[in-house]
Amino acid sequence: MARAKSNDHAMPEAGAPAGWGRVIAHADMDAFYASVEMLDRPELRGRPVIVGGASNRGVVSSASYEARRFGVRSAMPTVEARRLCPEGIFVPGRMDRYADISRTIREVFASFSPIVEPLSLDEAFLDLTGTERLLGPPLEAARALKRRVLERTGLVVSVGVAPVKMAAKILSDLSKPDGLLAIGPEHLRAFLDPLPVERLWGVGRVTLERMHRAGVRLIGDLARRDAGALRALFGGFGPHLRELALGRDPRPVVADWQRKSYGEESTFARDLKPESEELGRALLAHAEALGRRLRADRVHARTITLKLKLARPLGGGRYPLVTRSLSLDVPTDDGAAIMRAARTLLARAARSEKIRLAGLQAHNLERADPRQLGLFDPAAAAAVARNARLNRALDAVARRFGDDAVTRGLAHAERAAPTHRIK
Predict the structure, then answer these.
(1) Prediction pTM value
(2) Among this protein's residues, is 186 annotated catalytic?
(3) Residues 384-396, buried b or exposed e (16+ Cβ, 10 A)?
(4) Checking CA distances to 391, which of 2, 233, 333, 422 falls within 20 to 30 Å?
């Protein structure tokens, strides 16, 4: 296995490039949201920075490595993060800023390979197969990728390189922070066998408990099990996991990936009634944020989904979830249209119980190609054009002065847990 880190010497590369077959890199930005905050505010560097909702019901979106030393992790409740790291510096997330830097990162990735499969704002697979003449051996190409990301963004990225996607992802995880690991095909089994079985994709808590009861703790344990026995234990998923354990992962890097959904949600500092003004403000803030993100990516959404978490404990930290969806006659990237859909959905879902969390999701996406205006409804066509001009103006103000510079007649609502991940 070849390894190169900022504080490490590179070891000899495992396998000559000609013997690799497929060459897949997984690039993952380190503590992305927290790193962006430290980039923009140098006084935060070296401090335990925690990005997420400020209320006790908020959730950690990202934590710097200084905060992680105290046990703080993404998706952890804010109250738990405060307990573990009393000196932590909590900052709100800035989704538009992260998305802007993400676009620059994507440009860098695209300059190394025409086949890039983004997984989220801050990570992607790259197929480097056949790029040796242009970029050099896999390890050399990955080093160049790390340098280019640093030059363009001021941020560091960890990279794993392997013949299969699963191993590349594991390698990038193991190389953090600011690291690089590469392994050739002839060393793949020796690398995988001693790793804990939960490193495999798809092995969650329930599956892991069943594997442990069956005596499967390492990836090598799984690879040595009979496929029929695994099918009896785990159904059709068992033989699939065994193939991964054997280093067989034929899944390609998919270049024509398309985002499936955009989401925004907030966990409130106190439980809210369905008719409360504060809930309406939060939904409007989310609708406007979704509109900006859709317009930035030049897509329209045909379906809007409302998500509510009721303030009725079910035990074990769980609460009832209520979702309602509405398909629009005309796909939209307009925050006002999204908010109208949200009001309709809230009326459908209204009940007497108080609400702990509320969110909106936009999905069933379409490319925002220029749309033909209606020939027989000039008033509607004029309204569409007017809204488009208004949104362009609002976007320009937000880019220059920030998201909260201009809002549609609402007090600023906290976006405690904005999401920008593939669903």
Answers:
(1) 0.70
(2) no
(3) beebeeebeebee
(4) 422
